[in-house]
Amino acid sequence: MEKLSFEEGKFAVKFARINIECYLSGVHYVVDDLPPIFKKPRGVFTTLYTYPKRNLRGCIGIPEPVMPLIDALKEASISASVDDPRFPPVGRMELRDITIEISILTPPKLVEANSPADYLEKIKVGRDGLIIEYGTYRGLLLPQVPIEHNWDIGEYLANLCLKAGLPVDTWIKKKVNIYSFESQIFKELSPNGKIVEEK
Fold first, then answer.
1. Which of 3, 24, 43, 167 has the highest CB neighbour number within 10 Å of its CB?
2. Are residues 163 and 193 in the same domain?
3. Each residue of 113-126: pLDDT tens digit?
C-alpha cells in the first residue's frame, strides 16, 4: 500500500488540529487544495496526549479503509477529542496543551493460526497492530501501544483481550479471529509544534 510522504503526514497532523479547533469553535473547516492520497480510502486513528506528561487524552479511529482518508481523518480527529467515553470532551483552550498523533493504517489481515502458539510466531511486537474478534466482542490496539507499555507478545495479546472486554486468556482458550495491520505514524513533539514521523 502506498505510504504517505513526510509532507503528506505533516498535512494530516495539521489538518487534524485545525479540524478539532474549528469544531470546538463551532466553525466548519473545508480544505480546497487536497493531496491526492487523501482522496483514497484508508483506515486512520487520531490519538491525543497531554503535554508535557504525555498521558492519553483520547484515541478513536476508523480501522477499515471504508472512506476517503480525509473524511476518516475528519471524523476520527473530532471523535477523539469529544467522543472517547474514557474521557470528558476536550475544551477549546485545553487543546493548547495537547499533542496530536495520527496513525495511517494498512488494511487489517487475518492472522492464520492453527493453534494459539502460531500467534506467538506470526505477530511481531512493534510492527503489528491487532484486532481481536470473538462473537460480538471486538478490541483493537495500535502497534505503538505495546512498545509504550513494554509488553511482550503474551502481554500484548492479554491486553488486547481486555480491550475487547474479554478475559485475558481468551486468545488461548477460545476460537478467536485476530487481525494484524501496520501503521505509519506522524506526531507533534509539542502542541502545534514540530511534526515528526515515528520510525
1. 43
2. no
3. 999 999 999 999 99
Q: At what angle do helices 69-82 and 6-25 cross, to 10 degrees?
A: 50
- Which three three-digit cell numbers place residue 70? 480525509
Q: Return the bridge partners of 43, or none.
A: 105
- DSSP character string of 42-87: -EEEEEEEETTT--EEEEEEE-S--SBHHHHHHHHHHHHHHT-TTS
State how far the Cα of 16 lies from the Cα of 54, in Å rounded to an integer: 18
Question: What Å distances lie between residue 191 and 61, 93, 97, 169, 199, CA to CA?
Answer: 20, 12, 6, 39, 20
Both 146 and 168 in one domain: the answer is yes
pLDDT range class, residue 32, cuts 50, 70, 90: confident
Same domain? 163 vs 187: no
190 and 102 together in one domain = yes
Counting the structural domains of the chain, the total is: 2
Q: Specify whether the CB–CB gap between 106 and 182 falls below 8 A.
A: yes
Residue 41 maps to a domain = yes
Residue numbers of the domain that contains 160 = 109-181
Element (H, E) at 141: strand 137-141
Report how far Cα 50 is from the mean position of its chain's Cα atoms: 16
Do 35 and 57 reside in the same domain of the chain?
Answer: yes
